[in-house]
Amino acid sequence: MSLLMNVSRRGAIGGLTQERAVAAKCLPRPVFAAASPFGHARSTARGSQGSAARRSVVARGMVEKITSEELEVAIATRETTIIVDFFATWCGPCLLLAKELEKVAETMDGKVKVVKIDVDENPDLANMLKIQGLPTIVFIPKENGKPALRTEGWLPAAQIMEIVGQMDAGQVAAPPMPSAAPEAAQ
């Protein structure tokens, strides 16, 4: 154990050392070998089951996978509320949310547009919007000037539809923004 602690301290300060390379050969091979830009591990040991699961995140007809450029166009030309799902193919809750978003898209056909953005394929947008937890859902109202709402984590379809309904009715208020500088007491 002291060798591993010593190696990790050296590795953190001085990069890869010869001791670290020797210690790495002694350790069992990790199941999660590839890392995403967000520091999360992606499984590379799933084989065909994993690739089928990853496809199910975006293979639905009613939910469209788009890029950051396509999102800008969708926002500028929107006629309905847009639900944007920021996801990753290696994210378990994202797989569950994909099914819920498909239900929302089918139930609210024409009243809402549901799109998905893969954070691994669009890291600049994810960093700009400070997407730190997955899945992250952003609700963009159909009216310009109204604030977007954002939530992290899995939500059931009924709750997503309730949020959209409240937004369309004008019943959802955005939390107050903190001021940049406190006002001076006079």
From TrEMBL:
<dbReference type="InterPro" id="IPR044182">
    <property type="entry name" value="CITRX"/>
</dbReference>
<keyword id="KW-0809">Transit peptide</keyword>
<dbReference type="GO" id="GO:0045454">
    <property type="term" value="P:cell redox homeostasis"/>
</dbReference>
<keyword id="KW-0676">Redox-active center</keyword>
<keyword id="KW-1015">Disulfide bond</keyword>
<dbReference type="InterPro" id="IPR013766">
    <property type="entry name" value="Thioredoxin_domain"/>
</dbReference>
<dbReference type="GO" id="GO:0009507">
    <property type="term" value="C:chloroplast"/>
</dbReference>
<keyword id="KW-0150">Chloroplast</keyword>
<feature type="domain" description="Thioredoxin">
    <location>
        <begin position="23"/>
        <end position="169"/>
    </location>
</feature>
<keyword id="KW-0560">Oxidoreductase</keyword>
<dbReference type="InterPro" id="IPR017937">
    <property type="entry name" value="Thioredoxin_CS"/>
</dbReference>
<dbReference type="GO" id="GO:0015035">
    <property type="term" value="F:protein-disulfide reductase activity"/>
</dbReference>
<keyword id="KW-0249">Electron transport</keyword>
<protein>
    <submittedName>
        <fullName>Thioredoxin-like protein CITRX, chloroplastic</fullName>
    </submittedName>
</protein>
<dbReference type="Pfam" id="PF00085">
    <property type="entry name" value="Thioredoxin"/>
</dbReference>
<comment type="similarity">
    <text>Belongs to the thioredoxin family. Plant CITRX-type subfamily.</text>
</comment>
<keyword id="KW-0934">Plastid</keyword>
<keyword id="KW-0813">Transport</keyword>
<dbReference type="InterPro" id="IPR036249">
    <property type="entry name" value="Thioredoxin-like_sf"/>
</dbReference>
